[in-house]
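Example 440, ligand FE2/S2 (inorganic) cluster.
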Amino acid sequence: MVNVEGLDTLLHSHPFFQGMDEGMLEFIAGCAANERFEAGDMVFREGGPADKFYVVRHGIIAVEVGVPGRGKATLQTLHEDDVLGWSWLVPPYRWTFDARAATLTRVISLDAVCLRAKMAENHEMAYHLLMRFTAVMAERLHAARMQMLDLYAPGGGPEGDRGP
Amino acid sequence: MTADLMLPRAFRITKVRRELADTFTLVLAPDDDGPVPPFQPGQFNMLYVPGVGEVPISISGDPAQPETLIHTTRAVGAVTKAMWSLKAGQSIGVRGPFGSSWPVEAALGDDVVIVAGGIGLAPLRPLIHAVMARRAEFGKVLILYGARTPDDILFDKQVRDWRGRFDLSVHVTVDRATGTWSGNVGVVTKLIKRGGFDPHHTTAYVCGPEVMMRYAADALVAKGVASTNIWLSMERNMKCAIGFCGHCQWGGRFVCKDGPVFNHAAVADLLPLTDF
Ligand SMILES: Cc1cc2nc3c(=O)[nH]c(=O)nc-3n(C[C@H](O)[C@H](O)[C@H](O)COP(=O)(O)OP(=O)(O)OC[C@H]3O[C@@H](n4cnc5c(N)ncnc54)[C@H](O)[C@@H]3O)c2cc1C
Ligand code: FES
């Protein structure tokens, strides 16, 4: 883990960590590293070990799933100000989707083993981190439901017929 | 006067453009070659297909060129499907323009955020023309557009032209990515959350399905935009379009006369609630 000092400043300026206590951020930054992905690089693959989560600083990451016979479907794109991945919080700690850099992307990755150990050690920090993840999960769940509703279909719902 | 307002005037279709698999644009000119009444962005006409029925459709053209009357319609039911099969040279009845309009003046000096969902881009296009005609009088201008798939992006050539302009930020997102789409995937509210405008000096105009408008308005308010600076366009079934029959009643309002464009602060309580 290089340049920890710089990393906690970077984390501090990211909306996900906004308002978090400096001491906690410093503690978290001990698990952080800078990473860079070229356009097209896989960040992680479905089924692989969820050993990190990512704070997007710059670029676009496509969250994808393979659909038999249809190739890859993009479920959502993530941008700066977003975080990627929460499978590291839930056993058996495996990614449930693919993530691919759609453009040159810079992230801060947080090592899951390191972070889980720190969370076990410092429950207050764990609480603040989980509260932030819960908000992200709620927002993503809501967005997924909206997408499922297929609001722009004729009739504004999945029952609508298509075309004249 | 009222009788006149109820009487459709015959227009001939001068051009038909297939926009999407189910959406088309009709360009109309009066059969009598008389003047076409001016309109304000956001207003609608009642379009009458003889023998089938009459429906409200927003004007989607440039308010600075009212003589070219343009309507963009999605074929969903009896009347709009009958309209879909009309060809250039055939006639259609037109009454209007009716209703309230997008208040362009309200945004002078402000950033302008235009949020469209699906066919909702059509009623907003006259507003985009009006804003761009007076571009220097506004701060940033953003168009945030959510479509179902990349193949459902309405006015795609025009959207690409807008994207090429330096004085306009256009962000498009789709609910489902298909083909070679490499743009945003996700709901339009996400584009609002990403910002790029000064929420305390922003006027926002939102048009799309009601559920989408509700969440878009919520996202704008969460970002710091005042509810009184948010404008929405509502849809209800209509008959007279002049506030007589009560068909379009919504709460204590008539969508045809008091709307279709409403201020969010005045109608937020009436917007649909989903229980998720
Ligand atoms: C002020 C105003 C402006 C409008 N502007 C436009 C416009 O610019 N372009 C446009 O395409 N439409 C617009 N509409 C909606 C349009 O008026 C309706 O789609 C039309 O009345 C449907 O009539 P129909 O006879 O074809 O369908 P109907 O036979 O009445 O309905 C058939 C089926 O279509 C569904 N349906 C009806 N209305 C809609 C709708 N709005 N969206 C999705 N499904 C629907 C119904 O649930 C039903 O299942 C506007 C409506 C209002 C009130
Ligand atoms: S349509 Fe008749 S009152 Fe509005």
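Summary: The helical segments of chain A are 4-13, 22-29, 112-121, 123-149.
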